[in-house]
Design goal:
There is one protein chain. The protein has six helices and no strands. The chain is mainly α and 109 residues long. It has two domains: 4-40, no CATH class; 51-107, Orthogonal Bundle (434 Repressor (Amino-terminal Domain)), CATH 1.10.260.
Length: 109
């Protein structure tokens, strides 16, 4: 857990290690430690979604392209282009697709 590469920078590593000590001795609770984790540890990379993966995800939750477009706040045309491979989701759309993949529709609605 003390690998430097795991932290955003060395200063945050020092802060996080101190927080871990406080957590271990009971000075801070789990919620506070979670906040330190979010602050100090890097955000995991969002996986890439190709057309087949998007279509499989949509079919897993039995939703239409139109519904997916609405949930992701994008156009139906964009979802269609993703599924045929003409375009690839990026930024917020990728994050929302990842959230849908991990948490299901309840995670988006």
């Amino acid at each position: 857990m003390t690998e430097t590469a795991r932290y955003k920078n060395r200063m945050l590593e020092t802060v996080h290690l101190g927080a871990q000590d406080l957590f271990r001795n009971g000075s801070i609770g789990a919620e506070e430690m979670k906040r330190f984790d979010e602050l100090c540890l890097p955000v995991p990379a969002v996986p890439e979604f190709n057309g087949a993966r998007i279509k499989a995800l949509r079919e897993r939750y039995a939703i239409t392209q139109s519904f997916l477009a609405t949930v992701l706040n994008t156009s139906l045309s964009t979802v269609r282009q993703w599924e045929i491979g003409a375009k690839h989701p990026s930024g917020p759309s990728s994050k929302l697709l990842d959230l849908l993949d991990r948490k299901g529709l309840a995670g988006l609605i």
